[in-house]
Amino acid sequence: MTSEFVVRRAEPADARAMAKVVVECWRETYRGLMSDATLDDPGLLPRREQFWTAVLTDPQYSQNVARVASHESALVGVAMSGPPLEAADEHRQLYLLYVYAAFHGSGVGAQLLDAVIDPEASALLWVADPNPRAQAFYRKHGFVQDGAVSVEEGIRSIRMVRRGGASAAGP
Question: Own/partner pairs for 159-164, CB < 8 Å, 24+ apart?
């Protein structure tokens, strides 16, 4: 099924579709973790579109890597990495990776992850907790929880890291 996907560099013209993927994935994944008021806010999609437009056009984001995955010409996933948000950290940071639930297990998430962070590179990410499916996905790709926890806007997240040279290959 993975051959049915195209993973490519995100372009400014993708901003609206990228926002739609992220907002709909938030609604699929975070209902019950994020407030309904946030998830159902009519301004959420326009704000996310504005965010993606900035990411894809503003030079301040030039060190970020944004990729999209499409299936039958429709975007089904989005990923972005960049420099670590914490200055003391040397790892590349995965800022986000979202794939519609209908495509979980298809391989598109792995393709997106590898497109934004070299599979052999050191990396870190924050993932909502609980989110067992995402945490298992990241463990499969060499990430381990390092004990750091963050709570922002009522959402608990755990940090996961991958040391350089860690292979995503499984049995």
Answer: 159/124, 159/125, 159/126, 160/124, 160/125, 160/126, 160/127, 160/135, 161/91, 161/122, 161/123, 161/124, 162/91, 162/121, 162/122, 162/123, 162/124, 163/122, 164/120, 164/121, 164/122
Q: What pLDDT, on a 0 to 100 scale, did the predictor assign at position 164?
A: 82
- Write down the CATH number for the domain with range 2-162: 3.40.630.30
Domain boundaries, the chain: 2-162
pTM (predicted TM-score): 0.91
Query: In whole numbers, what is the pLDDT of the chain averaged over residues?
Result: 91
pLDDT tens digit sequence for 37-71:
999 999 999 999 999 999 999 999 999 999 999 99
Q: Which residue has the tokens 């560099």?
A: 9
